[in-house]
Amino acid sequence: MNLCIVGTGYVGLVSAACFAETGNNVCCVDVNPDVVKMLEAGHVHIYEPGLEELVKRNTAQGRLTFTTNIKEGLKNALFAFITVGTPSRPDGSCDLSFVHQVARDIGQNMEDYTIVVDKSTVPVGTADKVRELIQEELAKRGAALEFDVVSNPEFLKEGDAVSDFMKPDRVVLGTDNVRTAELMKALYAPFARSREKCIVMGVRSAEMTKYAANCMLATKISFINEVANICEQVGADVRDVRMGIGSDSRIGYSFIYPGVGYGGSCFPKDVKALINTARQYDYEPQLLASVDDVNDRQKLVLARKIEAYFEAQGGVAGKTLALWGLAFKANTDDIREAAALKIVEYLVGKGMTVRAFDPVAGDNVSKLWTAGGLDVVDEQYAALDGAHALAVVTEWNQFRTPDFRRVKKLLRAPVLFDGRNLYSPTLVAEEGFAYFCIGRRAAAE
Ligand code: UDX
């Protein structure tokens, strides 16, 4: 089948490469000519394991092409996917100007019946608006073309994007049109091998499903972070509590890892957006508002532990902290809403110097951080030299079993703050570290 995919961010490029891999002809449209040039040369502008290989192979075999010209992209395309960004506005609502612009572009340039697929995460009601804008543009040019608008939210995770797309838990298809649903199912058949994996529903329910899924996962994380904070107070260990509750199949083990709060491009934005939508309808979403508040507080839990530890030594001002991990999670260079940035901002604000290392996100932080007080180094152990303590903020594999003797030698004092509960408290204590983690009182307290 012929597909046009507008927007080559995470969702757009991963979808395009995976659809091309299963034999479709996919033309990607992006407004940025530099990005198009890079992609044509087989270079991927985002960090995502396995993606570059897929893009290279399908580009070389002629199934995957790139253009800045939407007219060219839409030529012969049965499906037009909208996969552009929907950034947050300061009030938490979604900025839909890119989505709306693409809808207008489609209306102005489509030449035949087209199934327009909303894959960007968009508030309930957006598909109706997209339909209206396309209709308006068609009317302006007197074109009586038929089209359909489907909501098809994407659930892939950064870092696992290709495998999540290739083996989805489910494919949500929001449409009332039976034929369109069948065509969408055929497109997804190579990925959703069992037909039950395609869940067909109304457009608004599909739009809502994406928010409900992300808000549910964010709620699990804020819940366990709250439990972790209470564990510290009462002398329990959240790692045991997690096992104790996760073994109940109704609860499950996943997404109940306590840590430094959720970050990334989706959870913070989507929780805020659903709160905003609910309030537009005069409904106060108390639970979601708390999920968001608990997360904001959690992002500073580690920084506050560091501050409290150094209080007895004249405060954090003038001290140096080595920090491992800047990305919002492992296996990505994405630093959007990353807890590490909040931690750095807080501690640098109190006069501390931070020397940080991340396997891939360092450059992104260096470009963004102009305020001083932060030095990004390109080797893990180079961050430690003469620092007063080490804080681990992202769970990269290479941080999981470090050479503790070397760490101890390089640091001024063996003090370890673990924002991801990566280490065994017993073993690090044996190595002579003062060890502080999440949801468990430090041994000395
Ligand atoms: C998320 C959803 O998982 C995905 O389905 C959706 O399409 C986009 O948003 P992503 O943002 O890539 O994906 O990351 P994810 O792996 O879900 O992690 C989100 C944040 O939660 C990270 O900051 C992570 O560190 C944190 N997290 C996750 C926890 O703190 N504890 C957990 O148990 C799980």
Question: What does the model show?
Answer:
The chain is of the alpha/beta class and 445 residues long. It has 2 domains: 2-201, Rossmann fold (3-Layer(aba) Sandwich), CATH 3.40.50.720; 203-444, Rossmann fold (3-Layer(aba) Sandwich), CATH 3.40.50. It contains 17 helices and 14 strands. Strand 10 (353-357), helix 15 (362-368) and strand 11 form a beta-alpha-beta unit. Uridine-5'-diphosphate-xylopyranose binds at residues 154-158, 214, 217, 221, 255-257, 259, 262-264, 266-267, 328-329. Uridine-5'-diphosphate-xylopyranose (UDX) binds next to helix 9.
Query: What gyration radius follows from the Cα positions, in whole Å?
Result: 24 Å
Mean pLDDT across all amino acids: 96
CATH superfamily of the largest domain: NAD(P)-binding Rossmann-like Domain
Overall domain count: 2
Unreliable sequence segments: none
Dominant shape: elongated
Oligomer class: single chain
What fold name stands as the CATH topology of the largest domain? Rossmann fold
Fraction in helix: 40-55%
Side by side, the strands of the main sheet go 3-2-1-4-5-6
DSSP strand content:
5-15%
Largest sheet report:
6 strands, parallel
How many helix segments? 17
The strand count comes to 14
Q: End-to-end span in angstroms?
A: 64 Å
Question: Which small-molecule species are bound to the chains here?
Answer: uridine-5'-diphosphate-xylopyranose
The CATH top-level class label of the largest domain: Alpha Beta
Topology:
Elements (H helix, E strand, L loop, with lengths): L1 E5 L3 H12 L3 E5 L3 H8 L10 H10 L3 E4 L2 H5 L4 E4 L14 H13 L4 E5 L7 H15 L6 E5 L9 H6 L4 E4 L3 H11 L9 E4 L1 H32 L3 H9 L20 H14 L5 H13 L2 H11 L8 E5 L14 H11 L3 E5 L4 H7 L5 E3 L12 E4 L11 H7 L4 E4 L6 H6 L3 E3 L9
Parallel strand pairs: 1-2, 1-4, 2-3, 4-5, 5-6, 7-8, 9-10, 9-12, 10-11, 12-13, 13-14
The site of uridine-5'-diphosphate-xylopyranose has 19 residues, from helix 9.
